[in-house]
């Protein structure tokens, strides 16, 4: 698989992953929370895979580093879903994972701006910035969710109440709306980045 093909395939997989994760993060009366968690897990695994493939595409070392940092952010989120579901560490890992994704995308934006203009450059930059906004909103949302839960737990003064609160409330608050909004903004940005990757590959032919 050539460098251009890897970039396109990687960005498409990332886009599919972000859309899947966005569906999983969206409050719904028709999808059980366990199914939504599964969608979030699958979505982030796809994103990590896509970023890993994209990191191997032709480009600068800085570009590859940015993609790898972003992939590590996805893996951090996956770790939260697998190992610490519905516990405090779950939210901390989600905050850290989204911030890592934003950092990796920021590295890629800086690298793209410094390059000589090429087809798809503007789409790559706009797509990455849009995803940074989405990841940042998700990090803020998860931080607020953790704060809300801690407040409730402190009121109850009962350590065992933590998980009970999560099960009863499922954190369907303003913080969850922030996370869902950020997820869809990230998904939109990933689609824009796919367009940029296709234009870049076409311009090199």
Task: Identify the notable features of this structure and list them briefly.
205 residues, 84% helix, mainly alpha, elongated, single chain
Can you walk through the features of this model?
Helix 2 runs antiparallel to helix 3 and helix 5 packs antiparallel against helix 7. With 205 residues, the protein is mostly helical. The chain is built from 7 helices and no strands. The chain has one domain. The model has no long low-confidence stretch (mean pLDDT 86). The protein is elongated. The longest helix is centred in the last third of the chain and has 36 residues.
Describe the secondary structure blueprint for this structure.
Blueprint: H1 3-25, H2 33-55, H3 61-83, H4 88-114, H5 121-156, H6 161-169, H7 174-204
Helix pairs in contact: 1-2, 1-7, 2-3, 3-4, 4-5, 5-6, 5-7
């Amino acid at each position: 698989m050539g460098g251009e093909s890897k970039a396109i395939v990687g960005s498409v997989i990332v886009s599919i992953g972000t859309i899947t994760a966005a569906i999983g993060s969206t409050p719904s009366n028709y999808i059980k929370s366990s199914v939504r968690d599964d969608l979030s897990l699958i979505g982030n695994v796809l994103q990590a895979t896509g970023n890993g493939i994209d990191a191997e595409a032709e480009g600068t070392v800085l570009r590859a580093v940015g993609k790898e940092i972003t992939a590590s952010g996805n893996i951090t989120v996956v770790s939260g879903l697998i190992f610490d579901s519905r516990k405090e560490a779950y939210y901390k890992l989600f905050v850290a994972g989204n911030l890592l994704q934003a950092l990796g995308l920021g590295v890629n934006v800086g690298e793209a701006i410094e390059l000589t203009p090429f087809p798809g450059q503007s789409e790559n930059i706009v797509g990455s910035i849009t995803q940074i906004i989405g990841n940042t909103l998700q990090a803020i949302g998860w931080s607020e969710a953790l704060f809300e839960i801690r407040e409730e737990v402190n009121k109850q003064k009962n350590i065992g109440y933590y998980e009970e609160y999560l099960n009863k409330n499922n954190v369907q608050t303003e913080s969850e709306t922030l996370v869902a909004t950020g997820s869809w903004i990230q998904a939109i940005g990933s689609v824009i980045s796919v367009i940029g990757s296709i234009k870049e590959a076409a311009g090199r032919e």
